[in-house]
Amino acid sequence: MKTPKVPQVSVIVLTYNARPFVERCLTAVLGQSFADFELIMVDNDSHDGTADFVRQRYPTVRVIDSHVNEGYGAGNNLGVAHARGDTLVFLNPDAIPEPDWLANLVGAMHTQQSRFATSKIVLESDNERLNSGGNLIHYLGLSFCRGVKAHRSAFDRQELVSGASGAACAITRELFERIGGFDPTFFLYHDDVDLSLRALLAGEPCLYVPSAVVSHDYELSVPPMKWGWIEAHRYAILLKTFSVPTVLLLLPALIAIDLVTFAYLAVRGPAYVAAKLRSYGWVLRQATAIQASRRRAQAVRALPDRELLAKLGDRIPYEQLSPLWLAQLANLLIDPWFRLYRRLTLAIIHW
Fold it and tell me: What residues contact residue 283 under an 8 Å CB cut-off, 6+ apart?
């Protein structure tokens, strides 16, 4: 009997009550011009019939049932455990790839000998506008979509960026396993930041591929729960990535950004402040897990802190979060201080 050919690429779509989106997503993936891939859908204990629908409508899709919803990281790790490809591609169920997306994404990785890549993501509501031209990671652990609502023709050059978008990115299995995969303690949000920084720490920057285009049902909104997860995971990421002396050196800037964040959230209401306070509790509860993840990240470190810090950003796009007048004021009064502090830190550290 002939042995089935092992696919070069595994596309993993993680779902949770995604029935309204999943049909368009899977149909677009199965219509790709690139053919050497398998399609895996991991269902995180949906209650809307997503898994049954996919089994009936798409018999070639491998459906993996997770009988408990443990979040984005654990769900995608489960998909990887069942995947056979040498390249792992993660795609959100509310993302719709263009026909040559996978060919261009995987092709660029091969041509550039890159182990980690991210797509150009446009808004599903307006395909002429960007959701993300790669992600920007700030040296204090913040992350932002690059070019939100810019025309899709912007950011049209293939280049290295500080972060990938978890909505549509690819990584070699070797690198994914070397850096420990997704952190399963991260239930939602900042998982892509964490993966990007650990890859960068291991000497593997993210390649932005503008010809690999995906439309995404995205709206810039940060409710209280999301703020809480983002802030909690931001602290964990910094503790994993930088050495202790660097964290201590960055402490004044970290305190300053927390004060700015508290002021911003206080204006938005008590629920936002409560979410921010809960983030500290999460870090304390996860201290042992963070320490274990830190050991693994540091074990494959290839970049010194100084070089890592130099590759991260020092500008916060306040216009994504605030009215224009307030964003302009913050850019004038707050951002110069953080940029100066980064320059001073780079002048001090030699490790």
Answer: 232, 235, 236, 239, 290
